[in-house]
Design a protein that fits this description.
The complex is a heterodimer of chains A (277) and B (254). Chain A has two helices and 15 strands. By secondary structure, chain A is mostly beta strands. Chain A has a 15-stranded antiparallel beta sheet that branches. Chain A is globular, with a radius of gyration of 23 Å. In chain B, a hairpin with a 2-residue loop joins strand 5 and strand 6. Classes of the chains: A mainly beta (277), B mainly beta (254).
Amino acid sequence: MAQGNINGFDQDFYLDGYAISGVQSLDGGYSVQSDQSTFLGNKGRVMPFQTSPSIGQFSVSKDMTSQPSGITKWLGEEGFSGLFKYGEKSLAFQSGFMTEYRASFSPDDLPQEQFALSVFGEMGGDFSVGELKSKNETKFIPSSSGIEIECKGRETNRVTSFQYGVRVIRDAHYGIGSKFPKQVNLTLPYEISLNLTIEVDDYESENVYTTIRDGIDLTGINIKISDKCDSSKNIEYKIEDASIVSESIAGNYNDQVTASLQYKAFSMNVPEINYNV
Amino acid sequence: MSKFIRYTECPVKINEDFYLAKRASIGAQASATNPIEFGGKVGISTGIGPERSEFFMQYFVTGENDPIANLTGKNSCSGSFGGIEFSGAYLTNYHIGIKPYAPVEMSARFVVLSGFNNNIQESSFSENDYTVANGANVELTNMNYLNIGMDNPVEITYEVACERIPSFVIGSSYPRHVNLGAVEKYLDINGDDIGDVINYQERDIAEISIKASDELGRSRGQTLFCSGAIENQRLDISAGGTLNGQVSIKEVIR
């Protein structure tokens, strides 16, 4: 007999055994790569063959209501287990690796974090990933007035929103005769991106041919986000050697002129995110 | 009237057995020369030597044994390709490719020394219950660091090359008999690094065995064996990748 719907109160998401707070939505699953068997002269049954390992994917969106170092520490080499619990059932994985992390901020909204995981190895509903616990997390709710950005054009122009992102490639190596990967490599470099939208006072675009004349201009960018109640609690994102990869300026007859800037940087080290919480 | 024949109407057969082939080709090549005639005229003559025909197929094994693996000796075989029939075919190359999680794929190359009969004719067969070996279900023996310098092979190719020496007599287009020449096995393995054995040329190895199975653990094709010596070793890497070791082993059977 059907037990009824499973609403948000009966859903939890765990990484490495600990519950993750602030999760707004998630989507997890896997795909099986197969090829149909068609052969010369054969008009018999067409059977599918598996042709490469099944890879699971998880994408999670959450409010940043607690210090998020528990998430970004997974940008390193290590893998972790995870479990999405819904009612009495679950979707679990043994070995997940973070492939993307994004944090986005805009005035009057709670900051958002999104991350994506690739799962290599077993995934499904009928195995355990160990004891499940809740962490005593420090509350951290940033306010838009507590966002400081040091970058070109910021001194006299107002940043209205930004999105910080990190992407990393994970390569799973399978041996012959093995169903599970022998090793999952992090393929460097990390790709770090920053998208900014600013309200223009006196921002001026670079000339398109400046980069080919003078070389690509590299700049350092610092972003500090402070807690709404206690400014000594903050998160700092540091990007070194960022270069602008796109720039657009938009005008509107009944609105302000805005500029959208996209920076990218590449790093051989784990991106620097400092949590002073 | 010409027409296009679909792949489902062009089966391949060796010794009365249909094979689950992905690709097949057949061809004949005549020996030709350009004789210069009196007065400088250049012609073409194709009748100066026997015709060399070849049949190739790439296929999957669905039973416990692959009958083609037993053709590396002196015996010839017959076969057909979309209705074109041939006999007096000799296996010259038998090849197996194994990659993780990929179906284990065989290929065979034959020299055909008896010409062809019949024309292309549509036909088909119906195979409904079959499974193939997969690289995730391959059992390896002695393929380890101590023996060949790597623990994690990621690609294996196994090959048997059989030399065929036809003996022609004057007045006949076909050989009177075909001798078996050299038979050599080659085993090429790619995998993690081989740093410790790259200095050891001509290093003898313990016999390696490779047993391929389907997802239910049923053998698909005979167990393959190779001993012999390491003939070639290589390490390579490119930006964004991982260090890859390659070991080539050669065994001379005759």
